[in-house]
Every structure is written in C-alpha cells, then in structure tokens.
Amino acid sequence: NGEEIKICCIGAGYVGGPTMAKIAEKCPEIVVTIVDISAARIEQWNSDVLPIYEPGLDDVVKKCRGRNLFFTEEVDKGIREATIIFVAVNTPTKKIGIGAGRAADLTYWELAARRIAAVADTPKIVVEKSTVPIKTAEAISSVLHAAGRTSFSVLSNPEFLAEGTAMDDLEHPDRVLIGGPLTEAGATAIERLSQVYAHWVPQERIIKTNVWSSELSKLVANSFLAQRVSSINAVSAICEASGADVDEVARAVGMDTRIGHKFLKASVGFGGSCFQKDILNLVYLCQSMGLSEVAEYFHWVVKMNDLQKERFVSRIIHGLFNTVTGKRIALLGFAFKKDTGDTRESAAIEVCQRLMQERAEIAIYDPKVEHEQIWYDLSEVTGLEQSQIEKYVKIEGSVQAAAKDAHALVVTTEWDEFKTVDYRKVYQQMSKPAFLFDGRNILDREELHSIGFVTYSIGKPLDTKLNTV
Ligand code: NAI
C-alpha cells in the first residue's frame, strides 16, 4: 500500500550508521532517524568527526544529515514516529552465565524490543539488522504479542557489509536478504521493506525467505568466510614446514572457478567483531540442538585462528633468539583490518598481550585507531591499569618513530601506507640484526631481505640469513 514509510534505527554503530546513511541517501523522501542510548555517540554523529571511520561515509552523512537523516537520543520518540524500526544494537558473545564464551548476549536486543513494546502505539514492522541466533525473531514476536502488539511484524534482514568497504558494499550489495513469517501480514511486511531497498538494489538481488533461513544464512555466511581464512592459514603452516609458498598455492587453487580467489589470503588470523562471535554462536546452537559433531566441525575454524596467532608469536620469539625480554618491537597496525579504526577482536591485541607476557617493549603505530582505544583494549585483555601497561607499551605517530631502536617490525594490519615506507631509512635506525615479521604478507620480502632485514612472512619459505626464524 502507499502508506508513507518512516524509518527509525535503534543502534548508531558500525552497522546502524552506514546502512541508514545509505538508505537516507537513496530514498530522499523517507525520513530516517537513528537513535542510541549513548548520548556521546549521538553527539559524535552530529559533529564533524564521526564516531567511526569508514571510507565514503563522511560525504553521505554530510549530504543527508538534517535533510532526511537524523541522529538523536530520543529513543521513544523515534520509535513512536516510525513505521519501520530497524534494530542494529550490538550482540556480543555472552561473558557470564549459561553459554558464556559462545552464545550471543541478547540483553541489548531484548531491551530494545521491550522499549518498542512499551512505547509503540501504532503497528510497526520491526526489522532485525543485528546478527542474532536462529529463532530470535520468534522470541521478539512473543515479547511484542505479550504486550498486546499483535499486529506487529518481525522481519529478519541481516547485514552483510564489511567494515572498511561498508559504503561500497551497501551501494552494490551481492544480495539483500529479507526473512519474514509465512503469513499474509508477513508477506506485506516483506514487500514494504523491499520497497525501501528497491530504490537502488535490483529486484533479483533481493531474496525473500522464511525468518529462520534468513537468520541462519547470516551465521553460515560468516562461518564460511572465516572457514576459508582458517583453511588457508592451516595451509600456511604446511607451507612453512615444507618450503611451499602459500600465495602460489592460493593462486593455483583459487583459479579453480568452483573455489575462487577471494578470502584465500593467509595472515596472522582474522579479527573483527563478527567472525568469531558468529561462529561461536553457531557452535552453541549446534550443541543445544544435540549436533555435537557439527558444532566441533565449526569450532575448529576459531581454534585454528587462535593457533595461527600463537604460531606467529612463537615465530617472533623463536626468531629473536628465543627471547624478546627488554627488546623493542614495533607493532605496525592495531585495527583488525585496514581502512577501519575498529579494533574488536584484532589479532594485534593478542600478539601485543603475548609479547607483554614475554616482557618485550612494544611500540605501536596505527594510522587510525584512537590512543584511548589501544589502552582500553590492552587493559581489557591483560587486566592491568594503563599506568602498568605503559611500562611495556608506547604509542608512536609513525612507522619511523615506532621502529627507532627496535629489534623487529611486526606487521599486524595490512594498511596500504606500510607498503610505501622507506624501509632503508627504517633499517638504518633499528638494532641489528633487524627482523621483519609480516603477519599480513603485504611487504616485498625480497627487497627487505636485500636491505638487510631477516624476514618472515606467513606461509613462505623461511629466510635462512640467520637460521633463526
Ligand atoms: P556497535 O557496538 O558498533 O553499535 C551498537 C550500538 O547500539 C551502540 O552504539 C549502542 O550504544 C547501541 N545500543 C545498544 N543497546 C541499545 C538500546 N537498547 N537502545 C538504543 N541503542 C542501543 O555494533 P555494530 O558493529 O554496529 O553491530 C551491530 C550488529 O550488527 C551486531 O549484531 C553485529 O553482529 C551485526 N553486524 C555487524 C557488522 C560489522 O561489520 N560491525 C556487519 C554485519 C552485522
């Protein structure tokens, strides 16, 4: 029907912000309001310095903010005025209680749903944007129905964007997935939501399914992506032991069109807020359904990732003559991948923690991550106060500064700017022998080797210059 669409999104984070900015850009006649319980976050969204860094996001926000895109703390008002309510709150792994360490913590989700139940006085379409376990939509429906909101529809519309390329991913999504109840009202709600995406997404890319298929598809997609990373990382271990080169293997294997090239890059390990959390969530679901072998199968994707990080750290320690105590190590990159300031589950955190345990001195440089975030992450992982961490860790403003007097460079994030550094200059000011451990395989190891570095890359033949690594 032609009823006016008004959108409210609960949760102004990495997903809520960019997705709603894109909808506002593409649908100028739809008013999009993003609400959040964090006043600080809302204030940042309304300022010149947005709370998240994402290429292309600033332009879209500047273009739409105040026109048909609004950021506010007035959650209740936002809910009341909307016809479609997206819920894009965080769903981290549970830290305590049943399922701790695996299951999704749905506290934020339930609070948001209860808020909708409490204040929405006209029928709404409630859209799950967050990644949630299967049957969450059903649980949310129950909360709404118990509050007398029987004409509300709950849809699943998982988000597939990747941080660092979010705006492009949203502009040209491989698909938009909408799951809804198999009822007439469900079909109408799906149609209304697909009208929004139809402003810029071709019809054939909008997939409509039942709710559970949609919820499960998101967990499966992330599990498959992470599984490819863990598979190629497992191969990298074989390569190092055998003298094969993981990039050559990935190229040869990836040319098989059934396999494909993407996500076959060996590294220190995947990070980010989603992969590990979503796999563990799937593992927990499998366990609770009595599918213990299936659970174990997927669990190994995460275990392999942990092993890869540990293997990398061991290589560093072993390479530096079995001790890093008191040695300065330059850690290049703290974000979980390039082009984002996000550090959630970043491999750098674990590498840093392990090197701290070995009493190394660590000099960190990242072009985008805020210093406070680095201190926060290291406090969380070590349980130490910032003042204690500062005994081991310094944050520097450039590769050059971090590398000064360092025994080793350790690349933990694949920032493009690391490729264009003058490594001759860097080498000159380092302790000798100078080591390079490239956890992202982005640097030209032949060139670095010829400068004088002892180099180590993931899944590559070992540098025999010193016979240490
Ligand atoms: P985030 O932590 O950046 O943002 C969540 C926001 O929700 C925070 O600003 C928080 O203050 C707010 N919030 C929490 N409870 C609230 C409530 N009751 N009312 C109002 N606001 C509330 O999280 P992010 O990364 O945006 O993730 C959101 C969801 O999207 C998660 O389920 C995640 O798995 C999923 N997702 C994340 C992707 C990513 O790349 N970050 C990609 C695809 C899905």
From TrEMBL:
Binding site for substrate: 159-163, 218-222, 258, 265-271, 336-337, 440
EC number: 1.1.1.22
Keyword vocabulary terms for this entry: NAD, Oxidoreductase
GO terms for MF: NAD binding; UDP-glucose 6-dehydrogenase activity
Residues of the UDP-glucose/GDP-mannose dehydrogenase C-terminal domain: 330-445
Catalytic activity, reaction form: UDP-alpha-D-glucose + 2 NAD(+) + H2O = UDP-alpha-D-glucuronate + 2 NADH + 3 H(+)
The keyword NAD is annotated on this UniProt entry: yes
Residues where NAD(+) binds: 11-16, 36, 41, 89-93, 130-131, 163, 274-277, 344
Name of the protein in its database record: UDP-glucose 6-dehydrogenase
Species for this entry: Rhodosorus marinus
Lineage, broadest ranks: Eukaryota, Rhodophyta, Stylonematophyceae, Stylonematales, Stylonemataceae
